[in-house]
Amino acid sequence: MSNLEIGLWGIGILIVLVLLRAPLGLALLGTSFIGISVMISERSALGLLASTPYDFVASWSLSSIPMFLLMGYLAYCCSLTDGLFKLARKLLSWLPGGLGIATIAGSGLFAAVSGSSVACSATMGRVAVPEMNKAGYQPGFSGSIVAIGGTVGSMIPPSIVMIIYGVFTQVSIAKLFIAGILPGLLSMAIFSLVIIARVKLNPSLAPRESQGSTPDTWSSAILETWPMVMLICVVLGGIFSGAFTATEAGGVGAAITALIAVFRRALSWRRLGQALVETLKTTSTVFLIAIGATLFTRFLALSGVPDYMTNVALSLSDSPLTFIIGVSVVFLVLGMFLEPIGIMLLTLPLLLPIFNHYEIDLIWMGILVVKYLEISLVTPPIGMNLFVVKTVMGSGLNMGSLLVNTFWFVVAEMFILGLLIGFPSISLWLPSFLD
C-alpha cells in the first residue's frame, strides 16, 4: 500500500470515528499515530507524539487563549456585563423589536470581552430573555435572537477561533482581529433589520416597550457600564495601536476584569474558582483538538495527500471563486454535524495547501471560515447556541418554534456570507492600515 493510499484510508477512518461521536482530539491523534506507524515506523510515530504537544502549545500566541477565556468567564461569573444590555436597551428600545435589537447590540459588546459564542449566548440568555418575556415577546422569537446574537462572539475581536486560525495558518492575529470588525458590525446591523422587518410584519412577535427613560435610569446604566466599555477600549485599542500584542492583551484584559470585579465587590472565591475551572476545561478541550490537528497535518504531509487534493481541485476548476463556493458548501454541511473549532481544525490541513496554490488571501479566508462557523452554531442538529438557549429558557421554549424563528436569521447569514465573498474589501480594508 502506498503512502497516498494510507493517507486516504486515514481520512476515511477519521470520518467514521467522527460520525461515531468519538472525541475529535483523540480521533485525530489515534488516526495520525497509526498512519505514521504504518508509513514509517512506530518509533517515529512515538517521537512525533512526544514532541508535537510541546511544539504546538509552546507557541507564545496560544497563551492568549486562556487569558481571553479567563477575561470572559470572570465577566460572566461576576455578572459584570449585565449593564451592557441595559445601556443598549436605553438606546434602542424605541425601535420595533427594540429589546431584541438591544440583545444583538449587547451580544456584540459582550463579544468584545469574551471571544466565545457559547458564553455570549449564555450571558445574553440570562440577562435579556427575562426582560423580553416580561415585555411579551414570543419565546421562540426571543430565543432565536439570543442564539443568533451569540454568534458574533466568534467574529467580534478578541476571538478564540481567530487566534487558533492565526496560529495554524501563521498569519497576523492582530490583522485577523481588525478584519473581523466590519463583518461583525455588518452582521449585527442585518440581524437588527431582520428583527425590525419581522416585527413590522407580525407585531405580536414583540410588543412595543412602554417604559420611558429618565435621567436617573440613564445615569445608572452609564455608571454600571463604563468600566466594561473602558476594558474593551483598552484591550482592542492596545492591540490596534501596537501598544501590546494580542497575547499581552489577553493578560491585560484578564487583570483589568479581575480589578473591576474586586472594586464592585462581585469577586468571591467561589466565583473565581468557577471562572478558573471553566477556563481550564475550555482551554484543555481546545488544545487537545489543536494538538491532534497538528499531528494529523504532519501525517497528511508525509502521505502526500495535500498535493493530491490540490491536483484534484485544479482538475475540477481553475477558478478560485468556484473553489470558494465549493468550500462554503463543505463547511456548511459539516457545520450541521460537528462543533465549530473541530470543523476548522479538521479541514484546514487539507485546504490550506489549496488556499496557497490559488493565492487566496488568508486574512479574507479566515473571516469566511469564522462566518461558516457562526452559521454552524445555529444550524441543527448540532447547533450549539440553540441548545444553550434551550437550556437557559427551559420548558417555556418549544424547540420547533426556536428553529422556525432562527431560520430567518440563517437566511440573513447566507446573504452576509455572499457579501463577504463578493466584496473582500469588507474584510480587508481595515487590516490594510496595519501594513
Structure description:
- The chain is an all-alpha fold.
- The chain has one domain.
- Helices cover 77% and strands 0% of the residues.
- Helix 6 runs antiparallel to helix 11.
- The model has no long low-confidence stretch (mean pLDDT 84).
How many individual β-strands? 0
Query: Shape, please?
Result: globular
Order of helices and strands: HHHHHHHHHHHHHHHHHHHHH
Uncertain ranges: none
Radius of gyration: 22 Å
- Biggest sheet features: none
What does the average pLDDT come to?
Answer: 84
- What distance lies between the first and last C-alpha atoms, to the nearest angstrom? 48 Å
State the secondary-structure class. Answer: mainly alpha
Helix content: over 70%
Helix and strand topology:
Blueprint: H1 3-19, H2 24-39, H3 42-57, H4 64-77, H5 82-92, H6 98-111, H7 117-134, H8 139-150, H9 160-169, H10 173-179, H11 181-201, H12 215-241, H13 246-263, H14 269-303, H15 305-316, H16 320-334, H17 340-357, H18 362-376, H19 384-393, H20 399-422, H21 425-428
Helix pairs in contact: 1-2, 1-14, 2-3, 2-14, 3-14, 4-13, 4-14, 5-6, 5-12, 6-7, 6-8, 6-11, 7-8, 7-19, 8-19, 8-20, 9-17, 9-18, 11-20, 12-13, 14-17, 15-17, 16-18, 17-18, 18-20
How do you describe this structure in short?
By secondary structure, this protein is mainly α.
Index terms:
435 residues; 21 helices; 0% strand; globular
